[in-house]
Amino acid sequence: MGEIVINVEVQNAVDREMVTRGDLREIEVRRAAFDAVVDTGALMLALPEDVVDRLGVSIVDHETVTYADGRRGDLPIAGPMTIHIGDRWTFASCLVIPAGADPLVGQLVLEGLDLIADCRNQTLAPRLGTADMPVFRL
Where would I find the beta strands (DSSP E) of 1-138? Predict the structure, then answer.
């Protein structure tokens, strides 16, 4: 089984709202595009500190995390932002990881976009029958 690497764009959600209200031009929305690893063992989006700084989003909280090797630590949570994968997008916050680390896309983002990981083929795909748009069970 291989690693799934996808292209992601994140945007400052406050900037996006300001465009909607006419208080900011589209070109002024702070954004970043990069390749990220889909981590089906992770819960949240994790972005390097330099990307978070470029987006200009605020630290809103801190969270205790457990790393893959069993260590525990405390990481800042930043947001709000939008995350775009393909033609789908959702609101998100992220764990802030050290600059230069690989961005990770966790389960909350995948669920928000109604995507599932196909590790065998190293792809993301909509749940069966939902190719056109996310479908949420309420």
Answer: 4-12, 31-38, 45-48, 58-66, 72-85, 88-97, 104-105, 115-118, 123-126
- Greatest Cα-to-Cα distance within the chain, rounded to the nearest angstrom: 47
Choose among 42, 108, 41: nearest CA to 81: 108
For 29-74, the pLDDT digits (tens) are 999 999 999 998 889 999 999 999 999 999 999 999 988 889 999 9
CA proximity to 134, closest of 89, 92, 91, 83: 89
Q: Using the 8-state DSSP alphabet, how is residue 136 labeled?
A: -
Using alpha carbons, list the distances in angstroms from residue 37 to 15, 19, 70, 105: 26, 30, 20, 6
Q: What is the pTM of this model?
A: 0.87
**DSSP letter at 64?**
E
78-94 pLDDT, tens digit per residue, is 999 999 998 899 999 99
Token pair of 103 as six digits: 């961005």
Q: Residue 65 burial by CB count (10 A; 0-12/13-18/19+): exposed, middle or buried?
A: middle
Confidence of residue 1 (pLDDT cuts 50, 70, 90): low
| Cα–Cα distance, 90 to 84 (Å, whole number) | 7
